[in-house]
């Protein structure tokens, strides 16, 4: 099974004689291209690529909060506009995932703009965050040009690059001596700066900064949730996000503490050959001098290869999931009139079981600890101990167990728990659930048809082919599915069809659309309850005894 994501940025035909010039107030002029429909030769949308939104996070800026562009930065002039027709530079990442050319200078946006004059107030804006476990991928992997050119969805789409893996989510108190500076979650800070750049500049592209939807699939959805949490925190000065698209991710576990991830940092230092006897500042200076290739090679040689977000108290508050459990998160969403589309696919596990699967109970525990706190992983995995599961005998069994459990932790159980938690305050008119069992023929190029609608196969639905051709029948099915999504992104009243939180808008394998009860509602929630109760017990104040 292929795990890499095919590049889609150049999939559409370009009309060389047509350019799109835009002046960014105070930053000069940039030039993009007009994309054509390959069959009709009619314009589909305008596209800009690799637009910097921050200084390169290199050298002394590596593992630091991203820095905005300086006041004297210029994209170009009217006479000599900057050429922004090329794809963004992907962040360096492990070779297994198929991105060959990369650069740490990756804080760049790709932007798509509808053809024609914007409506009064400007086009709605979709801030789209690419997925890839926060370890791999690129904002060049998706192509929404046919979505804008052939459906009712008309919006400016901004997709940022951000730091991944060890570059974006290495965490340690050693990284920054100043208490006010972040020591983790650099990739999330990248996304936030790109979102602020979008808010400040999208009007120059015909977009409405007061009508922004943030969305993504998988790690992109996980990111969208955490961007929302950061955005609506009462301590923030301005609200940017109005709506959220959360495709195939549930966000149900409070991330590890900075203390817990210190062990991974120490392992990373050791693999790089840096002496333990050196001071903290010497060690940080040494890793900042390593090349990107040396850092990626070190990650390849580590047992725990994923670097994940951390409850640092700065970007991710330590009580985030307590606020979700007690209903205050949902009440805040209602107060700010925020709507959400959230859902899953029927065969999510088929991809997950191939991502570094375990071969025993102990390796199951260690593998899940890549992503979750050990205090959560241990009770979750206890039911699979050999003494309790004597029928488990082979590597294949553990791969299947891992696929099912990982899909529940990442998507099915946590998604339903999230819905249940926010629905205490958020009305159903603002909470739109779906399930998909449908896949287009173009997906067969990447994913075997026999595995069904697995994780990420729905990108050809959400982006109307996502750079690949749809059959005539598929175009009809997908266009109909996207009609309420168009209303959602515009901020209009949405005719989703569901009336209860346990109902989903369902797309069947043969392309039929119906409203039905979620058959997994009761079976998937117990895992969420286990996580919730474990988290609450761990954070419950204890009486001190002298």
UniProtKB/TrEMBL annotation:
InterPro entries: AB_hydrolase_fold, CarbesteraseB. It comes from Lachnellula suecica. This is Putative esterase/lipase. Residues 22-492 form the Carboxylesterase type B domain. PANTHER family: CARBOXYLIC ESTER HYDROLASE. Signal peptide: none annotated. The gene is SPCC417.12.
